[in-house]
Amino acid sequence: MWKWDVVWQVMPDILSGLVVTLEAVAGGMVLALLLGLLWAVMRRSKMSYISWPAWAIVEFVRSTPLLVQLFFVYYVMIDVVGRGFSPLMTGILVLGVHYSCYTAEVYRAGLDGIARGQWNAAKALNLTPYQTYRYVILPQAIPPILPNLGNYLIAMLKEAPLLSTITVLEILNEAKIFGNEHYRYLEPLTIVGVLFIVLSLLAGLSVEWLRKRTAAMTS
Q1: What is the mean pLDDT of the chain?
Q2: Which one, of 218, 169, 140, 51, lies nearest residue 210 by Cα?
Q3: Are 61 and 156 in contact (CB under 8 A)?
Q4: Of 89, 135, 144, 164, whose CB is crowded by the most CB atoms within 10 A?
Q5: Distance CA 196, CA 184 (A)
Q6: Residues 206, 213: Cα–Cα separation, whole Å
Q7: How far apart are CA 147 and CA 131, in angstroms?
Q8: pLDDT digits over 75-119, tens only?
């Protein structure tokens, strides 16, 4: 039976966990966007010693489960190098690196969509590779792919509860701890479910707004 007094009792813990969840997702997404662009640019290089390592990293990370990566970095790295990261930092790094290998493919599709003449024009103007990407290619390539990048934000949000397996006090872990202590799971888990639905809907609406805006900009 639903008890509202339990709801008010658990809400501070849930909100605390929500902040940690949003921190992990925000940090992971920023890292994923930056690294993904790096992998995409490296894979386009004509020098094999640059393109092949990027290809290997992307394929390796995409071929292993996120949960295995979390366990490896959190539990194994400390034995290998003698020290490790905090649970939250581990979560941010693993989420960021994992999803960077998916955003890299989105970036690559955007870069491949740029007409060859744009690259040739930049070369004719004697622009450096950095200038070519910064001033010519990326301003054209990124707007059309923003909605696809936004979809990975939603995916990352839904996989954030996996961080509870490495003791990150995110929203689901806080609910589980409260349930274990008070033998009440109905209220905390229901609240967590509702919050994830709301967050996913908000993220989805943001992606749709972004899609319409970029469509208007490129039309």
Answers
A1: 89
A2: 218
A3: no
A4: 164
A5: 20
A6: 10
A7: 25
A8: 888 777 667 788 999 999 999 999 999 999 999 999 988 888 888
What was the pLDDT predicted at 219? Answer: 58
State the Cα–Cα distance between residues 63 and 74, nearest whole angstrom. 19
pLDDT value, residue 71? 92
Mean pLDDT of 163-176: 92
Give, in order, the Cα–Cα distances in Å from 168 to each of 148, 161, 189, 209, 214: 28, 9, 17, 32, 36
Q: Which two tokens stand for residue 102?
A: 């998916």
157, 158, 159, 163 alpha-carbon torsion, rounded to 10°: 70
Residue 123, pLDDT > 90, answer no
The structure tokens 């060859």 sit at 116
| Residue in 170, 169, 167 with CA at minimum distance from that of residue 156 | 170
Residue 129 in contact with residue 50, Cβ under 8 Å? no
* Per-residue burial over 95-104, b = 16 or more CB atoms within 10 Å of its CB, e = otherwise: bbbbbbbbbb
Please tell me whether residue 90 adopts helix, strand or coil conformation.
helix
Contact status, residue 69 vs residue 94, Cβ threshold 8 Å? yes
pTM of this prediction? 0.89
Token duo for residue 115: 């007409």
